[in-house]
Structure to design on (442 residues):
């Protein structure tokens, strides 16, 4: 099985090779701009931590837990908490507080059956084997937070991470270095995060020095290269996929299969996303699983029409998450489906018969990444085994239901200003701002 190589970056600005290799130093403000609201990333990664974490080189490492072990055929896991860790409000991390956060995070759909404390350890138990528990606990969903009393006075929850939320305003956040961080104070004093900023405005701010780190959507990577920006790009970490409802006429699996065969992935790849990423019909990318090529990704309009047969389902709604390229992709898919005999209307509604969305593949471990996607799609049983054959079989059986149609594997990227040093992308393509520092010009 091929393993995904360590997160790598390509350099499009020749002068970056001449960056001075000075010693990192503390101080300064990193200025980051994003198009979204900033809550999920990068604020989540800087303020909250999990029991484990995956480093940019794909290795699983201790975080709030220092060690773990399993017994009873991976049905029982014991994670020992790190001593001396405090939340940003000064309260100590305890097993009880960690359990309260973990239980809230999965909202009744936890991959374990029960949680309990044993001294300074957390015991996870399940009726089924949980071989991927250490990797699963590194995911964003299971980062530890603590309610901070009255939500009328933000922040409503606090974490243990290298930065704490120091200010919140319309259009942005201010994060301050956690002076008592268990792994050592981060280099930057503060991070100013500006949200809701269009990509064009972000790039303009970067060019005139008003921003240090800005977003580069996958469809804009080629343009960023042409403009000689310094770009960090990840391997494929986002899965573009179409979710198909099983309600009404779409309860018919043949109709769902007809929809999946009607989609022209090559057009999405070549036209909408400017040949960035990879065409796929599997959940896991080829670089992660080694078997993605076994899932055929070619369009077969004739077979799609045959599967639909004489069935004439009512008008289907096709929704999408995001804007820009996602809207264009939804419109292209609707055109494909109309050619196959389906009546489809594109909508920006959050609920539709068909939903086009981007699914993050946040784990470098194939079994953990697959289990995360399956859980997000309503599957509750964890993978019983993590061999390549078992992972392939689980993915094959799930995709055979035609409720999720993988389309493209897409990278994440950002452009970096001349002041920023030692910035790397995390395993999910998010900039690792905690280890970056700012070069001060004399």
């Amino acid at each position: 099985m091929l393993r995904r190589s360590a997160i790598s970056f390509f350099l499009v600005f020749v002068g970056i090779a001449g960056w001075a290799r000075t010693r990192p130093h503390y101080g300064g403000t990193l200025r980051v701009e994003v198009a979204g609201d900033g809550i999920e990333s990068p604020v989540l990664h800087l303020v909250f931590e999990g029991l484990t974490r995956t480093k940019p080189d794909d290795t699983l490492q201790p975080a709030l837990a220092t060690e773990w072990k399993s017994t009873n055929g991976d049905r029982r896991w014991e994670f020992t908490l790190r001593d001396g860790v405090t939340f940003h409000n000064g309260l100590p991390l305890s097993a009880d507080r960690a359990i309260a956060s973990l239980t809230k995070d999965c909202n009744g759909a936890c991959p374990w059956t029960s949680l309990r404390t044993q001294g300074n350890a957390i015991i996870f138990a399940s009726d089924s084997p949980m071989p991927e528990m250490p990797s699963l606990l590194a995911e964003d969903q299971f980062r530890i937070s603590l309610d901070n009393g009255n939500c009328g006075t933000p922040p409503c929850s606090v974490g243990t991470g290298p930065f704490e939320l120091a200010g919140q305003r319309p259009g942005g956040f201010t994060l301050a270095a956690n002076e008592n961080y268990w792994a050592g104070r981060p280099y930057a004093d503060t991070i100013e995060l500006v949200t809701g900023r269009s990509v064009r405005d972000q790039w303009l701010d970067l060019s005139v020095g008003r921003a240090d780190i800005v977003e580069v959507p996958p469809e804009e990577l080629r343009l960023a290269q042409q403009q000689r920006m310094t770009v960090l790009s990840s391997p494929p970490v986002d899965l573009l996929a179409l979710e198909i409802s099983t309600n009404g006429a779409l309860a018919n699996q043949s109709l769902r299969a007809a929809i999946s065969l009607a989609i022209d992935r090559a057009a999405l790849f070549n036209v909408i996303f400017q040949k960035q990423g990879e065409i796929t019909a599997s959940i896991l990318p080829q670089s992660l699983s080694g078997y993605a090529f076994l899932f055929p990704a070619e369009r077969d309009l004739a077979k799609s029409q045959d599967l639909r047969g004489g069935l004439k389902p009512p008008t289907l709604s096709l929704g999408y998450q995001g804007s820009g390229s996602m809207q264009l992709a939804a419109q292209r898919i609707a055109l494909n489906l109309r050619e196959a005999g389906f009546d489809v209307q594109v909508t920006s509604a959050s609920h539709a018969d068909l939903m086009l969305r981007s699914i993050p593949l946040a784990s470098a471990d194939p079994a953990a990444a697959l289990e995360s996607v399956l859980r997000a799609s309503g599957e509750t049983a964890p993978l019983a085994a993590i061999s390549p054959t078992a992972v392939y079989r689980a993915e094959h059986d799930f995709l055979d239901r035609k409720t999720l149609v993988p389309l493209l594997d897409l990278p994440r990227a950002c452009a970096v200003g001349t002041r920023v040093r030692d910035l790397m992308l995390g395993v999910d393509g998010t900039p690792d701002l905690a280890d970056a520092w700012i070069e001060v010009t004399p």
In short: Residues 1-20 have pLDDT under 50 and may be disordered. Residues 325-339 form the longest helix (15 residues).
